[in-house]
Amino acid sequence: MKKVLVIEDDEPLCWLLERILGQSYEVFVLHDGMEALSWLSSGNTPDLIISDIRMPSLDGVQLLENLKQSGLYKDIPVIILSNYEDPRKRKECLDLGAADYILKPFEPQHLINRVNAFFSKNLTVRK
Known about the structure:
Helix content: 40-55%
Strand content: 15-25%
Order of helices and strands: EHEHEHEHEH
CATH architecture: 3-Layer(aba) Sandwich
Radius of gyration: 13 Å
Number of helices: 5
CATH class: Alpha Beta
């Protein structure tokens, strides 16, 4: 079963993501970027990361920078979830290597479709 790491500090959204993705994937939920880096450094390797952009201690942009500079984690696709409609923020994340940038609130089915696309190798990254 494919593993999806969700990094999100909003508890209701964590619950929703775990429910909708947990039907098809093994989902791990963490609440900030530092916790995620610690989890990864403990030998855990997800097939996909879904990360909020604004979190305590280490935000999504900083997490993305760390992942993409790492030899071990740079190839893990990352979907950024964001409240920012700023095209510069979107471009920054995509330039740093994010595979997708989805605005909140989002339709759950849209996210499921994007995640399924990663795993079926039919994803066209939109910039």
